[in-house]
């Protein structure tokens, strides 16, 4: 089992995070779900290559992407002409926030959204102010202000599965009973 040391925001200093499997070029998947703290630490350390889907979810993803390539020529063509066709045709919309069809191996209480964009977004884990406003407004309306926490990142070019379509990842979990 590989072990990776990542910085923790929890105030306890460096935290040892046991990662049961790294995401490999063969996209074999990971053997267990990450904890919220692990996801936060991986993103904060910019080790996005360690994120992945469970083995079973990765097998489903690979099978589905094979079918998509056979039917549409490429995943990018499918995303542009089917999945995001209405969004792309909408001249007034620059962003679309939707749940990820193939989320990473996140905790059960986390949701993985994709923010698709017609505008460039810089890779990294700090959303640009306009991007942050978009997803915070959507989450405030859906969940309630102050009732969730989030993790944001845009993969660097070498990790982007669909580099032809700009998108970022938003991972959200609702907080327990929050005092107003």
TrEMBL record:
<protein>
    <submittedName>
        <fullName>Uncharacterized protein</fullName>
    </submittedName>
</protein>
<dbReference type="GO" id="GO:0005737">
    <property type="term" value="C:cytoplasm"/>
</dbReference>
<dbReference type="Pfam" id="PF12239">
    <property type="entry name" value="DUF3605"/>
</dbReference>
<dbReference type="InterPro" id="IPR022036">
    <property type="entry name" value="DUF3605"/>
</dbReference>
<dbReference type="GO" id="GO:0006044">
    <property type="term" value="P:N-acetylglucosamine metabolic process"/>
</dbReference>
């Amino acid at each position: 089992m590989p072990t990776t040391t990542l910085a923790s925001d929890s105030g306890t200093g460096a935290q040892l995070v046991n990662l049961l499997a790294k995401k490999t070029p063969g996209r074999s998947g990971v053997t267990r779900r990450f904890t919220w703290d692990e996801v936060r630490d991986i993103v904060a350390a910019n080790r996005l290559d360690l994120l992945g889907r469970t083995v079973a979810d990765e097998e489903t993803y690979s099978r589905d992407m094979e079918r998509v390539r056979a039917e549409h020529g490429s995943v990018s063509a499918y995303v542009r002409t089917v999945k995001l066709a209405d969004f792309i045709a909408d001249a007034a919309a620059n962003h679309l926030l939707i749940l990820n069809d193939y989320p990473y191996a996140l905790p059960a209480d986390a949701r993985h959204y994709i923010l698709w964009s017609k505008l460039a977004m810089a890779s990294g884990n700090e959303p640009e102010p306009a991007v942050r406003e978009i997803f915070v407004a959507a989450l405030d309306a859906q969940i309630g202000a102050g009732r969730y926490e989030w993790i944001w990142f845009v993969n660097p070019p070498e990790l982007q599965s669909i580099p032809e379509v700009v998108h970022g990842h938003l991972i959200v979990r609702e907080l327990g009973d929050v005092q107003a």
